[in-house]
């Protein structure tokens, strides 16, 4: 057993590498542009070598789309309910350059809807490393994930394509076409959130066109349309989460994501009387270490306390 | 007062021209590719001249995006409630080539949501010309419209961007990317409709990602993903319409649109226990004549009986 680890957070558009010390804290990290859709000429092996160059010959644990059908090697999803221990028992080991042992973390599959995640299971493990009693979790983003847990086990989850829908409407739809450069407009965002909240069981999908009508009315400045749409879509996600029981007003739900995006969700949640609180940074790095520890690749306490 | 009329159905991507006889039936029609986004070098006047070439110097009535901000001349929307008589009182006359008198039909603005339509008000007038007692109406399409009427007056309406969302997801999203050529799959369509119906108050927006999960599961053939998405989105539109009171299971709702699309809506409606029945073709041509009659541009009975 070695005294350290290399972790790779390897998604569609990014590759981040972490060199851990024996205590589970990242000593060094690197960001490379070699997501699995943007590989260098030498493909996965070359991207891998760039990521770990000059680092010791430690075991390497990787999560994310690198284990998908279009990745280095497909690692089957594990059905829910699944926790960290079960993830650790199903790592796939593949041959990697420079004598490294490379292990891939499987994604999760929820048979209820059905739904899938790949990469987020490791972020969840990172949250659990600090807060083992977590029962709800939100990971906002291109494909937002709402997660329910029991005793550290993911029981079910739902993906909402809020970020991708926003991008589609902004770049390709009649609502976003020919707009001037967007400017931040907190009032327009709030108006969109409120419209989604007021849509009731009908939902806010039928309100998208109001972005155009409000602009034609002169109520919404064209430069504020993107923030109105952002509010409408994030509001619709929260409306759905409350209607489907992914969230309720009694609990504060931890949130893992980029700061400005989490801030938008937090502001929208205020309108719904819902409490979302951003979890500490570094969940993917923490989760890789946590899973490596459960797999016996490194010695580590089960909970990160710092 | 002349004994006939020329009607123009002038949208973003199409221009259709009708030459009517004195009895309100189209003697001849033409389809030109000169929607307002695809004008010839000579702009609106040249497109107009092409559309009416060799026809008598009759008054011309035009509806659709030709009266929008990006059209030949902007014609302000009329607020609901508005019926045919009020539309006819607010035609805008503009100078047109070749000695023609050209009148533009205003669109409608619903202050409730807010919402707008331009072109559909004339289709509605066409439906009313045959069925004056119509109280509900669905115009499915890129921007579907659900309409409520009282005594032939449009009281309110809602736009659902179902067709545009389908196109965005199909062409630009992760769900539609890299799919093989689509094939018709009635089972996949039905599965999508059923999923939307089963989504309850949460709505089907949170189920979009299931298209990907079902494909990864091998349940959905990649070539059937478009029909699943079509079912999911049309089903969501119907779920919304029922939740918001635009439709209920007691009435048969007439539907104005293209045959294959109306057939999809009819099949989806069966799953919801909702009755949608396609109205006769030619509603725009009928509506232009009906509005022209109300404006005194032509003599005509209020109801088309054939």
TrEMBL record, chains A, B:
It holds the Pfam family DGOK. One of its GO terms (molecular function) is 2-dehydro-3-deoxygalactonokinase activity. InterPro entries: DGOK, DGOK_C, DGOK_N. Keywords: Kinase, Transferase. One of its GO terms (biological process) is D-galactonate catabolic process. The keyword rRNA processing does not apply. It comes from the Bacteria. This is 2-dehydro-3-deoxygalactonokinase. It comes from Dyella marensis.
């Amino acid at each position: 057993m070695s005294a350290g680890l290399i972790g790779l957070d390897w998604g569609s558009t990014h590759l981040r590498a972490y060199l851990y010390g024996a205590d589970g804290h990242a000593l060094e990290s690197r960001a490379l542009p070699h997501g699995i859709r943007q590989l260098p000429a030498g493909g996965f092996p070359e991207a891998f070598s760039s990521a770990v160059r000059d680092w010791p010959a430690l075991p390497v644990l990787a999560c994310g789309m690198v284990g998908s059908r279009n990745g280095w090697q497909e690692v089957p999803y594990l059905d829910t309910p699944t926790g960290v221990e079960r993830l650790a028992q199903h790592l796939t080991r593949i041959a990697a350059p420079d004598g490294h042992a490379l292990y891939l973390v499987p994604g999760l599959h929820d048979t209820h809807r059905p739904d899938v995640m790949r990469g987020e299971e490791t972020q969840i493990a990172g949250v659990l490393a600090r807060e083992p009693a977590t029962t709800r979790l939100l990971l906002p983003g291109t494909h937002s994930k709402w997660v329910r847990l029991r005793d550290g086990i993911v029981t079910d989850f739902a993906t909402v394509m809020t970020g991708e829908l926003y991008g589609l409407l902004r770049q390709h739809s009649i609502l976003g076409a020919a707009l001037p450069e967007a400017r931040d407009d907190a009032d327009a965002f709030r108006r969109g959130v409120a419209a989604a909240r007021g849509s009731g069981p009908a939902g806010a999908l039928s309100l998208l066109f109001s972005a155009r009508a409000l602009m034609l009315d002169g109520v919404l400045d064209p430069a504020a349309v993107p923030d109105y749409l952002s509010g409408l879509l994030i509001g619709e996600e929260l409306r759905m989460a409350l209607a489907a029981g992914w969230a309720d007003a009694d609990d504060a739900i931890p949130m893992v994501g980029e700061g400005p995006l989490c801030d938008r969700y937090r502001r929208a949640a205020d309108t719904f009387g819902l409490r979302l609180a951003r979890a500490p940074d570094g969940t993917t790095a923490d989760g890789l270490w946590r899973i490596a520890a459960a797999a016996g690749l490194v010695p580590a306490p089960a909970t990160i306390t710092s």
